[in-house]
UniProtKB/TrEMBL annotation:
<keyword id="KW-0285">Flavoprotein</keyword>
<keyword id="KW-0274">FAD</keyword>
<dbReference type="InterPro" id="IPR004379">
    <property type="entry name" value="UDP-GALP_mutase"/>
</dbReference>
<dbReference type="InterPro" id="IPR015899">
    <property type="entry name" value="UDP-GalPyranose_mutase_C"/>
</dbReference>
<dbReference type="Pfam" id="PF03275">
    <property type="entry name" value="GLF"/>
</dbReference>
<feature type="domain" description="UDP-galactopyranose mutase C-terminal">
    <location>
        <begin position="148"/>
        <end position="344"/>
    </location>
</feature>
<protein>
    <submittedName>
        <fullName>UDP-galactopyranose mutase</fullName>
        <ecNumber>5.4.99.9</ecNumber>
    </submittedName>
</protein>
<dbReference type="GO" id="GO:0008767">
    <property type="term" value="F:UDP-galactopyranose mutase activity"/>
</dbReference>
<comment type="similarity">
    <text>Belongs to the UDP-galactopyranose/dTDP-fucopyranose mutase family.</text>
</comment>
<dbReference type="Pfam" id="PF13450">
    <property type="entry name" value="NAD_binding_8"/>
</dbReference>
<keyword id="KW-0413">Isomerase</keyword>
Amino acid sequence: MMFDYLIVGCGFAGSVIAERMASQCNKKVLIIDKRNHIGGNTYDYYNEQGVLVHKYGPHIFHTNSREVFTYLSRFTDWRPYEHEVLASVDGQLVPIPINLNTINQLYGLNLSVDEMAAFLGTQSEKVAPILTSEDVVINSVGRVLYEKFFKGYTKKQWNLDPSELDASVTARVPTRLNKDNRYFTDTYQAMPLHGYTRLFDTLLSHPNIHVMLNTDYEEVKDSIPHQQTIYTGPIDRFFGYCYGRLPYRSIDFRFETFDMESYQSKGTVNFPMSQLYTRITEFKKLTGQHHPKTTIVYEYPVEQGDPYYPVPRKENQEMYNKYCQLAAALPDVHFTGRLGTYKYYNMDQVIAQSLTLFKKLKAAMVPPSANGAVINLKDAVKP
């Protein structure tokens, strides 16, 4: 069987393209994954105790894109959910990102919004130009709060000092002058009502889509007839690491289930200080599931393992750019997703990226004539 598209990876990056090509262009699609499940890193399942958990750590959907939210809403109902995170600092659990409540609780103050701005003004150290993650935080809240909330957490997460990381890493966690404890401020914040895996079941249910799991692309790429490839795996692996391996950080997830209804007050608690793990997440807070037991996960950043986080540094970007030059020479292979484009994307950004790629590919398709012959596009636009 000849497939129009061989898509590598059953996460959002690949599955969105698969669904669009199948449903909008009537293309025959084979989507493969080396894992034994669909859903990529958002895969969730019910554990032995019956608690719905995320196998690869917490995934909270949030976006400002109406297009992305409307698109996903075709495949799932939603549970409204606004994520809140606490940080364990100086023996207290205080809101993160840093806001007015954080400072008042941490220092026993009762500052107003205007007084908060003045307080941070006394703490911050103006840095120019802002080049690193350390620069971002010190310029915003100063060295004391940087040491309490960011330095240790970032060092654990990336195994690099914030002064060695691109500014984009800590810029993802802004400082607020108000009392908004939400981790995200996006217009659309929700969780799939029945979980991510159920969403993917629906997303990939089109009869033109064929799914093969436990399948390594390298082992089947030459034996499955196909016209074009969508690749969402690590771009350096696709090219045999010819310029070297792009660095990634991985996570060791350690789950525990307790015979209690609730373990902690919020869905996630960060630990920026001396613990080896970075955070603890309690899944029932995210999913809204009612269950007499609860499951949590500890996250221990590690060097080896599944590639989760591209490491944003200048030299890594330069290596990626070399791989991009190789990719540009392959007109029938298209790269998308966090690993395929070596960018630290959120879920909604991955979906938006694949929707954009679909529109580009669709626009490039040569329209058939009425009798089935191929129209020459140059002739088609002649008066």
